Amino acid sequence: MDTLVEQLTATLALDRHQEKQQQLIVMEERATIARELHDSIAQSLSCMKMQSAACRCRIPTCPRVANSC
User: Fold this and answer.
1) Secondary structure of the chain in the HEC alphabet?
2) Tens-digit pLDDT profile for the chain (69 aa)?
3) Is residue 69 part of a domain?
4) Domain range enclosing 23
């Protein structure tokens, strides 16, 4: 009887350990995806900022010329 209890206890402990490991893997993957998404968004925003600055440089400063476009 003791052997059965010991086996069940060991099996439950192993199951808990495996579940915690799986949760850790999922959390690490989510963190990786979040970092990549953040980097991608930051890159896109930087590109848009540069493009808008370039557009501003091309807009004529004279209102009369700007209105004729």
Assistant:
1) CHHHHHHHHHHHHHHHHHHHHHHHHHHHHHHHHHHHHHHHHHHHHHHHHHHHHHHHHHCCCCHHHHHCC
2) 789 999 999 999 999 999 999 999 999 999 999 999 999 999 999 999 999 888 877 776 666 655 655
3) no
4) 18-57
